[in-house]
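To assess whether ligand presence alters the predicted conformation, the chain was also submitted together with PRP. Input:
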Amino acid sequence: MGRVSISNHPLILHKLTLLRDVDTSPKKFRQLVREIAILLAYEATMDLQVEPKTVQTPLAMTSGHELAEKIGLVPVLRAGLGMVEGIWEMMPNAEVWHIGLYRDERTLRPVAYYNRLPVDPTVQVCLVLDPMLATGGSAVEVVNILKSWGAQQIKFVGIIAAPEGVRHLSETHPDVPIYLAAVDDHLTPSPQQEGDPPAGFIVPGLGDAGDRQFGTG
Ligand code: PRP
């Protein structure tokens, strides 16, 4: 199993509860995704490498640091989009590489539909951004794509996961640390009767993070 970090930061706990609330509007939901993503990225970037750098203050020369590695933010379309902007403000020199996947409703398998990664890797550290880790199929596929690209260091930053997804990702890619706000109870099973929710939704979860951000639910 790879390293799994579940934040117990009070701000994240507070914001996560608002995020789950069915009465939270899309505007508020987007704001919360952005804020939680920043807080989780803070935790996920604790071990970034820095290099010494001298700087002239108005009074004297002094020693400081600068980031030594180029960072790539990799939002998984669509739901990961809302996690980009806030994190990007914290690290404006990061590159953003979008990967489009959707989950087939019947098989729950990821279907790739967008990838414009250049031939050779241009970043040293990739932060995969997707608020939901359900079966883990999408996250595993994104990491497969990034590893085939040649990415050296990959971290997954999500918000809510199911135990099944954490297991799938961490067993398939034990070198990829996972940063989350919560691991929930279970995934919904295949519907048995009219009115049952579709399969593969995180319970209690927050519903469909893509639909709730973009008002398409
Ligand atoms: C959701 C979510 C993840 C994926 C998680 O995306 O944002 O990408 O499902 O499921 P998994 O762990 O079982 O693969 P969805 O397919 O709903 O697409 P969307 O973001 O475009 O709504």
